[in-house]
Design brief:
By secondary structure, the chain is α+β, with helices and mostly antiparallel strands. The chain has helices spanning 11-23, 76-85, 101-106, 115-120, 195-212, 233-240, 245-249, 252-266, 319-322; strands spanning 51-58, 63-65, 72-74, 90-100, 130-139, 142-150, 154-161, 171-179, 182-190, 219-224, 243-244, 301-306, 308-315, 330-336. Helices cover 25% and strands 29% of the residues. A hairpin with a 6-residue loop joins strand 2 and strand 3 (72-74). The longest helix has 18 residues, at 195-212. The radius of gyration is 24 Å and the shape is globular. The termini are far apart. The relative contact order is 0.14.
Amino acid sequence: MNATGRRPLAPADRARNDADASRIGRRPRLPKPRRAAVPPKAPAEGSAAATLRVSTYNIHKGVLREFIGLRRVTRIHELRARLHELDSDLIFLQEVQGQHERHARRLEHWPEEPQDVFLAKSPKLRQTFETAYGRNASYLHGHHGNALLSRYPIVGLENRDISDHALEKRGVLHCVVKVGRLDVHCFVVHFGLLARSRERQLGALIDWVSNAVSPDAPLIIAGDFNDWRNQLSDRLCGEIGVVEVFDALRPQVELVRRATYFARDRLPAVELPESAAVGGAPRMVRTARTFPALVPWFRMDRIYQRGFRVNAARVLRGIEWARLSDHSPLVADLELIDPGA
C-alpha cells in the first residue's frame, strides 16, 4: 500500500494501462531524459590527431555566499563533481586555495588537503589528474594561486610573480604537458583589476612566451584576464600568434573582407569609407560572457591557442554553475596539429 491507500500496480498492469491510454488518446508517461553537462568530446572524422578538451574556471576558492543571506558555504565538493563531469583533459584553475586555516576551523567538510589535490581526485575514484600549483598570494592563515589539472604527464613547471603593486598579488603558472611526442605549453593566467596593471602583466607574459616557447610549439594560454573591455586581445594575438577559441570558430574578419569585396565589385556607385578598406578590416572579438555567473555580462575569461584546430567552444551557464563560483567556466575542444605528421 502507498501513501494514498492504493495498492501499487504490477509491471504488467502498468504496461496494460499505458496501452489502453494510447488507444483513447492519452499519452503514457515517459521517464525524463538526463541532461548532460556538455556534449561528449570526439575526434574529428578521418583524423588520428589528439583531441583535447580544455577548460578554464575561476573557482573563487571553493567558497561562496548564499543567494539569500551572508553566510559563507563550502562549494568545493560539488565543484569537484561538476569538474569531473566535463571530461576535460586540461583544466586551468584560478583562485585555488592551497591552505586556509580559518576556513578549516569554521567551515564544515573543508578538505584537509590543498584544493588542487582534492579536485584532482574523482569522487568515485575512477579517474585522477596530475596537478601543478603556483602560489600567488600568501597571508597569515594560508595562501592561494593558480593550478593546472592534467590527464597527461606534466614534465615542466614554473610559477612567476607578475604583481604590479603590493595590494594585488597576481601570478602566471607555466606547465609543459607531454601529449604523445609533443610538448604542449600551458600558461594559467590571472591578471589584475586595473587596466594599466593588466597591460604591464600582458607585456611580461608576452616576453616570457617569446623567450621560453618555440614559435612552432603548441601553446594554450587560459584563465581570468579581467579584460572586460577587450583591450588586450589584439596585442596578444599579434605578437605571439595565438587565436582566441571563439574567434577561431567565428572568424569575423574574413566575413568583413568578403562583404567589402562584394560591395566594391557589385556596387561601384557606393563609396566605401576608409575604415572599410579590404586590408584593414577590423577584428571582431567574440569572447564569451562569463561574469557574473548568475547573469553573465562581462567577458573576463579567455582561452587562447596556437598549433590547434578549434572544433567547439562554449560557456557553461545556469543556476547550477552560479551556485559554485562568481565566474562561469569555458570549455573548448582542440585538435592538436602535429607538424611532423
